[in-house]
Design goal:
The complex is a heterodimer of chains A (592) and B (172).
Chain A (H helix, E strand, L loop, with lengths): L5 E5 L2 E5 L5 H7 L23 E4 L6 E2 L10 E3 L3 H16 L15 H9 L22 E3 L9 H9 L5 E4 L6 E4 L15 H5 L5 E3 L3 H8 L5 E6 L1 H6 L13 H11 L3 E4 H21 L6 E2 L4 H10 L13 H16 L7 E7 L3 H6 L14 E4 H10 L21 H4 L6 H15 L17 E8 L2 E9 L1 H13 L6 E5 L23 H17 L9 H11 L5 H7 L20
Parallel strand pairs in A: 1-5, 10-11, 10-13, 12-17, 13-14, 16-17
Antiparallel strand pairs in A: 1-2, 3-4, 3-5, 6-9, 7-8, 15-16
Helix pairs in contact in A: 2-3, 9-11, 9-15
Chain B lengths: L7 H4 L2 H14 L9 H12 L4 H11 L3 H10 L11 E6 L2 H5 L2 H12 L12 E6 L11 E3 L2 E3 L4 H16 L1
Parallel strand pairs in B: 1-2
Antiparallel strand pairs in B: 1-3, 3-4
Amino acid sequence: MDNSKITIAINDQEYKVDPGQTIMQAADKCGYRIPRLCYHPKLSIEGACRVCIVQVEGIRNYVASCAYPVANGMKIYTNTRELRQARRDIVELLLDNHPLDCHTCDRDGNCELQRLAYSMGLRQRHFEGERKQYEKDLSSTSVIRDPDKCILCGRCVRMCSEIQGVHCLTQAHRGFNTVVMPAYNQPFAESVCTACGQCINVCPTASFIEKNYTQELFEKLNDPNLITVAQVAPSVRAAIGEAFGLPPGRNMEGQIVAALRHMGFNYIFDTQFSADLTIMEEASEFLERVQSKGPLPLITSCSSAWMKYMEQFYPDLIENISTAKSPMSMASAMIKTYFAEKIKADPKRILSVAFMCCTAKKYEAARPELNVRGMRATDIVITTRELAWMVKSSGIDFVNIKPEKFDEPLGLSSGAGAIFGVTGGVMEAAIRTAYELYTGETLIDIELTDIRGFKGVKEAKVMLDGQELRLAVAHGLGNAHQALEMVRADRSRFHFVEVMGCPGGCIGGGGQPYPLVNSLPLDEESLKLRAQALYGLDREKTIRRSHENPDVQRLYKEFLGRPLSEKSHELLHTHYKPHLPKGIVSPNLKVV
Amino acid sequence: MTTTQANDAIATDDQKLAQLKEFIAQTQKDEHPDSFLIAVLHKAQELYSYLPVPVMDEIAQEMAIPTAHIWGVATFYHYFNLTPPGQHVISICLGTACYVRGAAQILQTLRDELKIDMGQVTPDGLFSLQPARCLGACGLAPVVMIDDKIHGELTPKKMIQILNQYRKQAKK
């Protein structure tokens, strides 16, 4: 007999449960799924939507089960006649102040409010009241804000502050006039928004969506004067299956290549190739800084949301940031120079399209510092969600299509390039190469398990020729904030810090498929499975170290010379500068 | 909804800013410095008569509170002005006694005469209009307070005469 348990009754059935949890958590474990909306297990409890109300014997009012703790002897009812009516009224009132445009909405079929309305049995609208009307914010290259669709659940506000530490959003004004917006009602493009897109992931409706470039791409695929070149990020292949009803963690690499070829792309390359290239440059930069003593720690720069965050919140650390461009921008730079020369084409005729798990990559692509020889390097960035829609819209049987291979000369990758999409992956890949370039010996244990997994800030040590190197890995901007405060306090604490802007790394990116029915965004189980898909890709490969990639070796031999050469600096490196508005690093942020 | 158009000259008034910073510095000694945000916003409004964006930015930096949070608080309470108020602030009492004695007609007169609505400023910057609940002068209902002066037993005609007095004064 376990004395630590308490007894509660749910719908007249008795259960032994742990104390100290909410009614909703207890009910979940007993097999009752109470409807919910503003609740998210990773975020603080808001209790705003009242959808999760239950009846408790002895309490006159309905209680919000997401916020109310269980107590011994508590008798809970989750599905009485009155409750069903009250919940339906609550959802009906939410719908009353919501546009009636489901069939033309971006989230049709993927909307939590729509699902909720369906499961509540709402088949007609009884209320017709005043409805809010606001302008959409279209200023950002990445994220669109549409206040008309907002139901004020506050998940985006909590995500942006509690997990990402950006604090871009707030609920401004009051009552009927409440609107989620950045400070001073700034347009997104002028706010501290890092374009990470996590507000899109947690939004139950289409109040936040990515800026969609699919129509523009369809147009350009039909332009016979253009040479269309695609690149695909590692995390896209680990997640896109979910948008086609497959369980998380299926690697759909070959299917993506085949689908893009069906859609009319002339060349399809792999961002994992340029991830290997990034490692060549970044590992060399790291070794140079270790040998010349500075500036250390070296901090990675692959994540676009992180770039903007750093420029706004940690401008004092700019000298520590690796100047190596992200794999996307490196691939695009090589497409418009090396590859254009190879196929003897005018690079201005090349349309470089990047398929990314990320909304911030749209922002990165538009950064003028990343232009190559006066040309924009990446012309269009398409998220995993947009790609899934394009595939469906093109009438491609994605699940059953015969897999195909990436093209040469930018299509071959090592296992190190694949794990770039998971938190800790860039560090692991860099250490594999840095160790061998420095010592000339083979690194025997190449899987750095200490920096794998989803702990907020991970620390590890490796020995490099008798010297101890201290490493730190952070994922999600809130956790990055923790790691960077450690760096600010003691610059010699770490030698190398990896930051990825999204929880879990790119696999949890702001452009990934919406969660499946009854699953929530940031669901750790889904993230684990996506990570396993990439670790599986790494393990399957015979080449697992970036410097052993023969196509990378050929690129250096034929074109770049060596890592950190003058040409590398021209094409593969960039610079950063402080960015306004200045971010406020809130001291109240906790590690998650 | 209007975004605050910041007046940089006001915001960079060094003397006022120094006073505000000193006030904030006092609050930061407390165990819960964040809890002083509303008090600090009150102080800022007392100094600047409204909350200019650059001033809210300064408060954010000094208190390490994100600007979005400050904006949420500043927009929640009607007391805080987000735009510069007029030279003369007209508060019209809409309490029960004044309402019964004809406050609605006085409000309509003000709207017609000033061509602005509640919470707005006349284009010449002379007047701004805001609602008040009871001003404690029910015996004089309906009443209007202009700056800190009470005007009672109003009729639409009397209201216009009072406005004209302020206008004449401004021309001098």
